[in-house]
Design goal:
The complex is a heterotrimer of chains A (365), B (329) and C (509). Chain A is mainly α. Chain A has 14 helices and 2 strands; from the N terminus they run βαααααααααααααβα. In chain A, helix 1 runs antiparallel to helix 13 and helix 4 crosses helix 10. Chain A starts with 8 loop residues before the first strand and ends with a helix. Helices cover 71% and strands 1% of the residues of chain B. Chain B has a two-stranded antiparallel ribbon with strand order 1-2. Chain C is an alpha/beta fold and 509 residues long. Chain C has 3 domains: 229 residues, 3-Layer(aba) Sandwich (Rossmann fold); 173 residues, P-loop containing nucleotide triphosphate hydrolases (Rossmann fold); 74 residues, no CATH class. Helices cover 33% and strands 26% of the residues of chain C. In chain C, helix 11 packs across helix 12 and helix 12 crosses helix 13. Chain C is globular and about 70 Å long. Chain C starts with 7 loop residues before the first strand and ends in an 8-residue tail after the last helix. Classes of the chains: A mainly alpha (365), B mainly alpha (329), C alpha/beta (509). Chains A and C meet through strand 1, helix 8 and helix 9 of A and strand 5, helix 10 and helix 11 of C.
């Protein structure tokens, strides 16, 4: 009677895990997530889940146009994800991508509106590119400056900057609204197409896709092989070690956040100058937050992010199809996305830890 | 002319959801869990209350509604919904030690989606012309104020014109403050958030504390969602109307330097800043957009100021955002 | 006497961390009214074994019996209920709480700080401690924190006490006081286990010794029946020579000149107060002092990591010309040949990055060389392999994250990396902290070899016995001021210990 119960479950940390095994666990988690999604779908809507999955694929790949849209959305999401990655690797939680994209877009739009009569087309585009990059960089640089100087919590600072950016855009949208009272700007320079980024080939999305592909490659090399990338890893893993070996942590934080914001600015530029040719408060469309998950799910590996951004865009694009096919609300895809994310997030545990159940071997002997 | 008597009640009503969200998030953060899913939790709290109210209103019929049930059913639904969200967050971050930021954001995606999906479905069910769902009968119970409040002039308007949830919010905030500062459980909860290894070595069940604090915190935050729909919005649910209040609640936690009693006044201040633009006599709509920036700018300023001062007692709980594993080495 | 029922009886205890076996079928008996010294090199599993007794870890195999009854200790709470209390090496205290709040943490009942404070004062009176119950932990000195830890355990009525290297951070005088208290407690009938690897402490204090080696129990005996050499042999497994080859300095010339150096830390506390000294080439200058009295700041100031308020630090060339290091970039100072190898309390906290592999960690020192924007990984892996070979670092490969290495091996990588760049000045702090005896002597030999090569070595150490044997001159710091410089060949540790606490009434001794 003195013998107390041994704990039923006992958890230990695993040593090295073979990458194959890790990916097997992740894929298993996604399959389990899809099963749960299927059950939830049937329970809440009474619709055959396979029809829903079918519709998702239909929505994503159904027509040429849909595939282009998928690629375009993926490109922008990937771009924002690449932007936040160096900051995350440094353990600097830049949750302000949303605002940085918006500000980049705002800078682009304001160039297009204010300078359309002053500059020739090619020069205007050059100015747009520079100002979008600068605007994004500044928007990320402000929290970075305070983070570096006073260790101000960057998660919350960048988060707040999103809303400041949103209101700033809202202000200019009303200032420049066309026509007066419409509450929106409409297509900028519709007739002259001044300041529109050039179209490559037959699709207006190709340019964006190519630009992001180049950024992906560069970011991969930057993080893995460059001295800057190495400094980012050291600062992220141990700030004290970084200081000890003489890395100027403040400089690295600011530099990396500037880079982060600059790439967000590029995303804003591509959205406004490349495809939308207008600006609203919702052009970033929550990608700043989705990007956090894309980046984290890919373990901050730019190449892996191609996969993870594809997964999330697939769900999002499919959702539109669901809502038209079944008369469901678009938000249903958020629920599905949430469920899938929960499973993937949870699966990391089984990669890093081992669960040991109480040994019953003794009794068996 | 700036109408203070009209402004203050509006600010208070705007501030109550923030107050509840802030108190809930403070309790959560004191256990070392940074729940960025609060926005999602508040949505779920709100929609669950709406579902409960909808079922009861349509089941009983507006005329035969019982006051107690009209309040209790949405309340229980709201608490249950937000409790489940809290449990989900805890399961992932405490039991499975997942990254808190990512889990929180996923929870927000899920929660907002959940709210809008069911909100949208209910709206469709009613076949309403407008994209919203009105539960005015239930709302009337929630908004009932003391019968003599309206006889007391400005005093009644400013202090007595609110539904019971508003007063409950203040009570919860003050009780939480007392709990954290003066009780043994509060002391131990703070120890868990500051230094879980120490708390563990002292025989405190770290995981249990994290679970309880986060779940109770989520339920409190969920009430914020319920208050918003049933009282502030007069029982009208429309998708995305709750907006960014969840994030503002998280901002408030920092603004109040993790003190729920400070939150009582601070949230009303935030509420005031949030709606200040409505009271600025100007026909320039563009400028009004800039006024809406104020609460965020103020939060940023406070965030910067506290980080500059570096007073030990004003810093975030030391292990905020970190998972705890006893056998880490 | 072994007919007594042991207070603690551990049998066949096995604990694994991943592929590392920390304890392998360990035995241990602890009796009441007795102080047991648990002896073993670092990494021999002493702390792990005791952590299982105090409920921090859970054994994979084996049984524990308390007073003859078999028990399961699944959590620290279970341990408390059985009267077991452990004082950890890294204090488990909440910084922003007061002493009293920390002491009552985890206890049941209503929170009543006044009664708690009274009871704390009573315990202090009984055993001769001094604790202010209302003082915040972040305002306390190390020794005060330790006292709070001990009171915490006693407050809970523990009668089996475990102390993990309690003297590591104390002055000799503070150690004496601690030992007096421990003897009081023993005479009070408590069972006490003290984890240590300092032989003289074992001889001073303990009644019985138990020795662990590589996670295995190698034997126990009465202290009076054994001696230092025998115990060392049991710890190491083969006879070890315990002396350091100290040669006379050859042609010492001033290399680092420190004049009137004053340094304040981030909070504005005075850390170094008008410190002046000279470090010479071909010589080991030891620095002694109780922990936190400015050693760290001194080394960091020389390495350019710590802003200097007033005073000067100069690097003296062989031809006698001087160059001031003040205001120079740490990287530039490093390029001048000043190497800093600082082993912090948590080895991985500074100096190394736990999740990176050996090659990347070696690269920490050299990555910025050259004009390329890319890093040269090939070269650092080569250097890493060299260090592994030279120091016998036990690692699966140079691509293994250093976090997976044992403490001693981590340290070898750290020290090896600093030496590999052939410095002119070598600054080391706590280079053998937590190392086993063999590795320690290997490090002492490496440092002496650097000295023979003409390097100016500044050695900050904790173990006074070693300082006296290794260093040519010893600078003693007390509260940020120099209380004297002594000749390593003519002094003894009592003299140094006294100097560490004696100066302008600031000593706490």
């Amino acid at each position: 009677m003195d013998k107390r119960k041994e704990p039923l479950i006992h958890i230990t940390k695993r040593g090295a895990v073979a990458p194959g095994r890790a990916w097997a666990i992740r894929v298993g988690a996604i399959i389990a997530a899809l099963l749960v999604c299927a059950v939830v779908t049937t329970l809440t809507t009474g619709i055959n889940p396979f029809a829903v999955f079918g519709a998702i694929f239909e929505g994503a790949f159904g027509t040429n146009r849909k595939i282009w849209m998928l690629l375009q959305n993926m490109a922008i999401l990937l771009c924002v994800s690449l932007a936040v990655t160096p900051a995350f690797k440094m353990r600097c939680w830049n949750l302000g991508a949303e605002g940085q994209v918006l500000i980049g877009g705002l800078a682009t739009a304001s160039c297009m509106i204010l300078l359309r009569d002053a500059l020739p087309g090619w020069l205007l585009i050059a100015v747009m590119v520079i100002s979008a990059i600068l605007a994004g960089a500044v928007w990320a640089g402000i929290p970075a400056l305070f983070k570096a100087k006073f260790n101000t919590n960057e998660t919350l600072f960048t988060l707040m900057m999103n809303y400041v950016a949103t209101q700033l855009v809202a202000y200019f949208v009303i200032l420049w609204e066309v026509p007066k009272g419409a509450g929106k700007i409409g297509i900028i320079n519709q007739n002259t197409q001044i300041g529109w980024l050039p179209q490559i080939g037959s699709s207006k999305y190709l340019l964006n896709i190519l630009v992001v592909a180049v950024i992906t490659g560069l970011m991969f090399v930057y993080l893995r092989y460059s001295k800057h990338g190495y400094e980012i890893s050291v600062v992220g893993e141990s700030e004290r070690t970084a200081r000890y070996i003489g890395i100027k942590v403040e400089k690295v934080i600011i530099r990396t956040m500037l880079l982060s914001g600059a790439i967000c600015g590029v995303a804003g530029l591509l959205l406004v100058g490349g495809t939308d040719h207008t600006i609203t408060t919702s052009i970033a469309g929550g990608r700043g937050f989705t990007a956090v998950m894309v980046s984290w799910l890919a373990k901050f590996n730019p190449l892996m992010m191609i996969l993870t951004s594809f997964l999330l865009v697939l769900l999002e694009r499919g959702a539109g199809e669901i809502s038209t096919n079944f008369g469901l609300n678009r938000s249903f895809s958020d629920i599905l996305t949430g469920i899938i994310l929960f499973f993937i997030i949870g699966s990391e545990f089984f990669i890093q830890y081992k669960v040991n159940f109480r040994k019953t071997a003794k009794e068996e002997k | 002319m700036f109408d203070v008597v009209a402004f203050i009640p509006r600010a208070v009503m705007q501030g109550i959801p923030l107050m509840l969200g802030c108190t809930g998030e403070t309790l959560t953060e004191k256990s070392g869990n940074l729940n960025l899913g609060t926005a999602g939790v508040m949505y779920v709290g709100g929609i669950c209350g709406v579902i409960g109210a909808f079922l009861y209103e349509n089941g009983a019929g507006a005329s035969k509604m019982n006051g107690f049930l009209a309040i209790a059913i949405p309340l229980v639904c709201c608490l249950l919904g937000s409790l489940l969200m809290g449990l989900l967050y805890c399961f992932l971050t405490v039991s499975l030690r997942a990254n808190q930021n990512v889990t929180g954001l996923a929870l927000t995606t899920f929660g907002v989606g959940f709210g809008n999906f069911f909100g949208g479905s209910l709206i469709k069910l009613t076949g309403s012309e407008v994209a919203s769902l009105a539960l005015s009968s239930t709302s009337n119970y929630y908004r009932a104020s003391l019968p003599f409040a309206s006889d007391l002039g400005w005093f009644g308007k400013i202090f007595l014109s609110y539904g019971f949830l508003a007063y409950l919010a203040v009570v919860i905030a003050l009780v939480s403050s007392y709990f954290l500062k003066r009780t043994r459980t509060g002391l131990q909860l703070r120890a868990v958030g500051e230094n879980p290894a120490t708390a563990d070595a002292a025989g405190i069940n770290v995981n249990r504390y994290k679970y309880r604090a986060t779940c109770i915190g989520s339920m409190v935050a969920g009430l914020g969602g319920l208050y918003y729909v049933m009282d502030y919005a007069n029982g009208v649910w429309s998708n995305d109307a709750f907006g960014d209040r969840g994030w503002l609640a998280i901002a408030l936690v920092i603004f109040t330097i993790w003190r729920p009693n400070v939150g009582v006044l601070a949230s009303i201040l935030f509420g005031g800043l949030y709606i200040l633009y409505l009271f600025i006599p100007s026909s320039n709509f563009a400028i009004k957009e800039l006024y809406k920036m104020l609460p965020y700018v103020v939060t940023i300023i406070v965030l910067v100021l506290t980080s500059m001062k570096k007073k030990r007692e004003n810093q975030p709980p030391a292990s905020l955002g970190l998972a705890y594993f006893r056998e880490e080495r | 006497m072994d007919n007594r029922i042991p207070a603690v009886k551990m049998r066949n205890i096995t604990k694994r961390f991943g592929s590392v076996v920390a304890n392998d079928k360990c035995w241990l008996d602890v009796y009441r009214g007795e102080i047991l010294a648990l002896l073993g090199e670092n990494g021999s599993g002493k702390t792990t074994l005791m952590n299982m007794l105090s409920g921090i870890y859970f054994p994979d195999e084996g049984t524990i019996a308390i007073d003859g009854k078999e028990v399961v200790i699944a959590s620290p709470k279970d341990a408390f209920d059985l009267g077991i209390g452990m004082i950890h090496q890294h204090y488990k205290l909440v910084d922003v709480f007061t002493a009293a709040e920390n002491i009552v943490l985890g206890l049941p009942g209503k929170l009543d700080m006044r009664t708690a404070s009274a009871k704390i004062r009573e315990i202090c009176g009984k055993y001769g401690f001094e604790v202010d119950p209302d003082m915040k932990i972040y305002d306390m000195s190390v020794s005060q924190k330790q006292t709070v830890e001990i009171v915490k355990v006693l407050y809970r009525g523990a009668d089996i006490l475990i102390l993990d290297e309690p003297t590591a951070v104390l002055t000799p005088q503070e150690t004496d006081r601690l030992f007096a208290v421990l003897r009081n407690m023993r005479d009070d009938g408590k069972a006490i286990v003290i984890i240590t690897h300092k032989m003289h402490e074992v001889e001073d204090l303990s009644d019985r010794v138990a020795v662990l080696r590589k996670g295995q129990f190698t034997g126990d005996m009465l202290t009076k029946n054994t001696n230092a050499q025998e115990m060392t042999n049991m710890m190491v497994g083969r006879p070890v020579a315990l002396n350091i080859n100290r040669t006379e300095p050859e042609d010492p010339k001033p290399r680092i000149q420190v004049r009137d150096l004053t340094v304040r830390d981030m909070e504005g506390t005075l850390k170094l107060d008008h410190v002046s000294f000279t470090a010479c080439s071909g010589e080991i200058l030891g620095i002694a002092g109780i922990s936190g009295c400015g050693q760290k700041e001194l080394l960091e100031a020389i390495a350019g990591l710590q802003p200097v308020e007033t005073g000067d630090i100069s690097y003296v060339e062989s031809d006698g010309s001087e160059e001031s290091l003040i205001g120079k970039d740490p990287l530039d100072i490093k390029k001048m040949g000043v190497a800093l190898s600082f082993v912090p309390e948590d080895r991985l906290g500074m100096g190394l990055v736990g999740s990176m592999d050996l090659g990347d960690n070696v690269m920490l020192r050299s990555y910025s060389e050259g004009n390329s924007v890319f890093t040269d990984r090939k070269k650092s892996y080569k250097v890493a392999r060299g260090i592994v070979e030279y120091f016998d670092v036990v690692t699966p490969s140079v691509e293994t994250p250093v976090r997976r290495l044992s403490g001693g091996n981590v340290q070898k990588v750290l020290v090896g990396r600093e030496i590999v760049n052939a410095p002119k000045v070598l600054l080391t702090a706590y280079a053998t902290r937590g190392l086993d005896i063999n590795s320690s002597y290997q490090i002492y030999e490496t440092i002496s070899e650097q000295k023979r090569k003409g390097v100016a070595v500044i050695y900050v150490g904790e173990d006074l016995d070693v300082l006296v044997e290794l260093c040519d001159r010893i600078l003693v710091l007390c509260g940020g001021r120099v209380s004297g410089v002594v000749d390593g060949r003519k002094t003894n540790k009592r003299e140094i210990g006294a100097m560490m606490t004696r100066l302008g009434g600031e000593g706490r001794g």
